């Protein structure tokens, strides 16, 4: 109806919505005879179209895929005004610059003047209105755009020195962002001048790494259509240039599904990032005969049931004979040879395992808590040896203190002069080399020049690692209680270190955002794992020693391949820095704890989140699976140890191809039915947990009087 059309056009003209008016006019094939002067507006739009055509085709192609992680072909875009075309051309060239060299000036120059600063609030609130009015199924997905767009638009205003507009933009919209971005927004609010942006790392990360959003194709098309109709090139440019939209085919995800996965510094992981094959199986144990000491078996077993023990023992020996189909090849990475003492220890381990308590919901472990009293030095790290004979504490006064937890005291080896007098052929030579005069319950190791943040015993209990704020990792001998090596590679505080389950290799992670793999006999690191956008706060070896997990303050967990240094998994979902990691004994699953008080469970093979355990009210600093993997223990700053049913958490997982491909994870609403018990300490935050070989749970922390 022509009359209505004219009325609408006049309304658009009065409201100063020229671009919408033009589009409608073109659609209706109405020229400017009804409304004087609008022929001119149509005419001005044609150079814009020409300008787009003039962009070199090569760059245009790159541009089409720049921000969209899908294999969709490049679709033509409607451009209505020369300004849009100009800014398009400008952003083309700068996008190419950014790819080549992410140095500061190049990165910031992507924020060249694009658009009228006074309209930013209008653009953003227009999009906000559109998303809030869209259908429920799309609204949750499109709401993910709010945060990255808010940050980029704010930074663009600041970079172009529109300080007052930036301030008002920030004040108007920062309250709409999800609560888990509050810390990032606090950093952002301090960037109010162009100069502030130059040295700010968080800012640079946000600029160089594209923020990843996972959106269904339907929601994406809806957004695209809206932005092109509104001619909202400002927002469209940001979407194209700074966001990576990972498009999947299928149903949009629900708010719960999205909330579970988002929250990291750079958005979600691209689906490609978790596609690589991971050998998560265990290596075959070397075979050797287990001598069955019948006498000591009878002696310790007063109930007189030696028959029951025997089959179980063979069972432990034979379990390792089958090769795990998911295990890496035995020689994929070189592992140290087993020494005689290691074999002896394995035999001891098997004997202990035969007497191990089978845990479960009906049979919870006893918990023994080691409280560090009067720890005025400030306890910053704890570790316990695998055989539970020694405990080490790292302290803020830069000391490392080692205690014996058994009646057997700690002794040093005799001096060289005394050793020369010993008969080396005698059976008890290992006993004779120890100096009784040095026997004590506690040894203090001096050497670091800053708080000690991480400690780790070697599996053979001959060495101890400690890492510190002073940027070094030190290797100590537990035979002489002296420092053997100081490894210098990190220039900043080192937050965590851990020995490989096979010894020889160890990993460290620090404030310089990288993790390093070392071997005890090399001064230089063997591998440098770079990719995190903030401090690497915790490190863990996979039970097969072929992979290393790192948790970071960028709120992601990454899994690295020791062989080639590649990142093979990126897990997002935590809303705060990660402080604890634990692999399940079978190598299939990873549990992670963070400052958000949640424990998340991950299936390593499929690269999927499979569970969320809620209950703690503060940072989780300790996680440990029981020896057979039936129970997961978590220890937190909220002064509690909680026990979770790991068997139930991992049974009947939905890991079909669709879930794996799109991340439609369905977490149970309530994790309370997985919680088996909560144990309060007397105002002692829990910093370490350890299951003994017989499944007694040991916990440790320093009493805090506040």
Measure the end-to-end span.
Answer: 77 Å
Low-confidence stretches: 32-102, 294-320
- The number of helical elements comes to 23
Helix fraction, binned, reads 25-40%
Strand line-up of the largest beta sheet: 4-5-6-7
Rg over C-alpha atoms, rounded to the nearest angstrom: 31 Å
What fraction of the residues are assigned to beta strands by DSSP? Answer: 15-25%
What's the count of strands? Answer: 29
Q: Name the quaternary structure.
A: single chain
Helix vs. strand class = alpha+beta
- Shape category: elongated
Give the overall pLDDT as a whole number.
Answer: 80
Largest β sheet strand count, sense and barrel closure: 4 strands, antiparallel
Notes on the structure:
Residues 290-301 have a biased composition (Acidic residues). Residues 115-243 form the TFIID subunit TAF5 NTD2 domain. WD repeats lie at residues 372-413, 445-480, 487-518, 529-570, 571-604, 613-645. This is Transcription initiation factor TFIID subunit 5. It holds the Pfam family WD40. The structure is a single chain. The strands form 8 sheets. The chain has a 4-stranded antiparallel β-sheet with strand order 4-5-6-7, with no helix packed on it. A 4-stranded antiparallel β-sheet has the order 8-9-10-11, with no helix packed on it. Strand 9 and strand 10 form a beta hairpin. It starts with a helix and ends with a strand. The chain is an alpha+beta fold. It contains 23 helices and 29 strands.
